[in-house]
Design goal:
54% of the residues lie in helices and 10% in strands. The protein has one domain (4-68): 434 Repressor (Amino-terminal Domain), CATH 1.10.260.40. It has 70 residues and is mainly alpha-helical. It has 5 helices and 3 strands, in the order ββαααααβ. A 3-stranded antiparallel β-sheet has the order 1-2-3.
Amino acid sequence: MGKHHKKLFNNLEELRKKSGLTQQELSESAEVSRKSINAIENGVYVPSTVLALKIAKTLEQKVEDIFKLP
């Protein structure tokens, strides 16, 4: 599992790279800043439900395949 926040683990960076997307491309699809994607990947920021769903849709994944509770 990738980097994590104390309340949420994620493997966003791994899945994003497997999809061949840059942080910028994912951020544009999810309608957030590239810095937001970076903060999520580094476990600094926990995304909202809406943002998590947008990210999952872009990556063609289930939310629970990207984000997990510790």
